[in-house]
Amino acid sequence: MTGLRPLDQSRVIRMLEQNGFKQARSGKHITFKKTDADGNVLTTWVPHHKTVTVFVIKYIIKQTGKQKQEFY
C-alpha cells in the first residue's frame, strides 16, 4: 500500500497491546501507556469511535515511536 487509511478501533487497540502498551484509563479517550527500556513513559490515546482516522493514527505513530508500516 502507498499510504495510511482509517482502521477499526479494535485493531488499533490490539496493535498497541501487542506492543506492550497497557490501558491506563478510559474517559473521552482510551489512554495507553508503556515504559520503554530507558525508563521513558510513552503515552498515547485512542478515541471512542468505531473507526480511527488517519490523523489520529499519525499521532499514535509519533507518540509511540512505531513504524508507519505497522499501521497499513
UniProtKB/TrEMBL annotation:
Keywords, sorted A to Z: Endonuclease, Hydrolase, Nuclease, RNA-binding, Stress response, Toxin-antitoxin system
Recorded GO MF terms: endonuclease activity; hydrolase activity; mRNA binding
Entry keyword Hydrolase: yes
Transmembrane spans: none
One Pfam short name: HicA_toxin
Signal peptide: none
Name of this chain's protein: Type II toxin-antitoxin system HicA family toxin
Organism for this UniProt entry: Candidatus Iainarchaeum sp
